[in-house]
Specification:
DNA polymerase, domain 1, 43% helix, alpha/beta, Rossmann fold, seven-stranded mixed β-sheet, single chain, 289 residues
């Protein structure tokens, strides 16, 4: 079971308005959804996820709440269409947990350089774009842009050049191959820090493959029309790009949202100790005026 991050904080805020209808836009294995249904016996939850494997596990994890939830396989950019399919106009609460689940990180889909696997990185296995295509077919300049913008990688130009140079000899096929290329670019004194040199490159390519930032921007812009007055939006992000988008959204919609988190909430020391993957999480929340 994936450990939900900021579980108590997020559900406390979401359920604090006394609502009954909630949309979990990143259902995953159902950890946050389960807590919402446990804490509010009158709640009904609609869940969205792109990952078929995660959905099947979520159904199993939520089976005791049968009749109180429905699940859709979709990109959360289409959350308005999901609600229409459910016959719903507005909800009382919306949750986004933008982290990659342990199910995905430990899978053989290439999300992590710590697992030897083909370069895939698709959350939705039905889509065409894969990490293999990004790494082996994107022009050098586009690769450099992705690594710089999505990974905030300071050696983006050198890494892109090294990737292109290597793929001319043979296609780059696995996570280990890509990680070794990145490692070879880093100066020796920087190869053994707290964060592995390949972390930012893998993050950037994953974001590109799954169009994560575009989906987030698209979804957020639809939300003011989908929340009841008093409805609450909770977003848990894991890197600065996502957090910046959420922060800007609340600022630009200050006429329709009251911010509930003057500063983003972060995991306690106890939570980080129990779940080190939570250390970079930031929670921002707002209430529809």
């Amino acid at each position: 079971m994936h450990t939900p991050v900021l579980l108590e904080e997020s559900t406390e805020i979401l359920l604090g308005n006394g609502g009954k209808l909630y949309l979990d836009c990143t259902l995953g294995l159902g950890g946050h959804a389960r807590r919402i249904l446990e804490r509010n016996p009158e709640a009904f939850l609609i869940g969205i996820d792109r990952d078929e494997e995660a959905i099947e596990l979520a159904k199993e994890n939520l089976k005791e709440f049968e009749g109180r939830f429905s699940i859709y396989k979709a990109d959360f950019a289409y959350l308005d269409e999901v609600l229409r399919a459910e016959g719903v106009d507005r909800v009382d609460g919306l949750l986004f947990d933008l982290g990659v689940s342990m199910l995905q990180l430990k899978s053989e889909r290439g999300f992590s350089f710590q697992v030897e696997a083909p370069l895939d990185m698709r959350m939705d296995r039905e889509q065409r774009l894969t990490a293999y295509k990004v790494v082996n077919e994107y022009p050098e300049r586009e690769l450099e842009r992705i690594l710089r913008e999505y990974g905030e990688e300071r050696f983006s130009r050198k890494i892109a050049r090294a990737i292109v140079r290597r793929r001319k000899k043979k296609p780059i096929e696995t996570t280990k191959e890509l990680a070794q290329i990145v490692l070879s670019v880093y100066p020796p004194p920087l190869r053994h820090g707290r964060i592995h040199p390949a972390t930012r490159t893998f993050q950037a390519i994953r974001i590109e493959v799954n169009r994560e930032l575009e989906s987030l921007r698209t979804a957020l812009e639809k939300i003011p029309d989908l929340l009841n007055p008093g409805g609450r939006l909770v977003v848990i992000s894991f890197h600065s790009l996502e957090d910046r988008i959420v922060k800007r959204f609340f600022k630009e919609h200050s006429d329709t949202f009251k911010v509930l988190t003057k500063k983003p909430l972060t995991p306690s020391e106890e939570e980080i100790e129990m779940n080190p993957a939570s250390r970079s999480a930031k929670l921002r929340a707002g209430e529809r005026i």
